[in-house]
Predict the 3D structure of the following.
Amino acid sequence: DAGVIQSPRHEVTEMGQEVTLRCKPISGHDYLFWYRQTMMRGLELLIYFNNNVPIDDSGMPEDRFSAKMPNASFSTLKIQPSEPRDSAVYFCASSPRDEASTDTQYFGPGTRLTVL
Amino acid sequence: AQKITQTQPGMFVQEKEAVTLDCTYDTSDQSYGLFWYKQPSSGEMIFLIYQGSYDEQNATEGRYSLNFQKARKSANLVISASQLGDSAMYFCAMRDTGGFKTIFGAGTRLFVKA
């Protein structure tokens, strides 16, 4: 089975530009998560969805960040306008609500974003 | 508030030896899950092992085992027979089973020496 797919893998953009990160979760997983990883702050949960509905976006840093999940197989994280401090690795993860209730999250390969 | 603490920024271990990576957590929840992930230099996050707060036995997955001491709020990862490919960053994480919000520790970088 294919794992979580993220695109692009690397993105370099200039300050002020709009950036869109994309994610395809594992088929059949009900939950989708967006994380940001930086050296200073480690791995932070930005937002998560259940059945395409945003459940908790308290980790979204500010209004410049938005996330959508129009269907069960696709999600986007958008930054508009981007700033140098947004430079980080952005991970998407998905999780089933499995019978064992471990609800393990499986991560995509990440998108390394550099804002100049 | 929930918190995960990994006190070892870096660890060295000789190939074929066992190593323990420490993790302590703080939560007021009675039901929660504990996870360990591996992040090699290539950057992906790889799930290793899970322990539920009500599980009476320590979790094991191949060479990985989780030393769960609930009263001490610790969930240490034990890697037996270390291999060069085990060199990576290791993250401990906790999720309350009432929701899906997961918090991660700062990580421990493991170096396996030949």
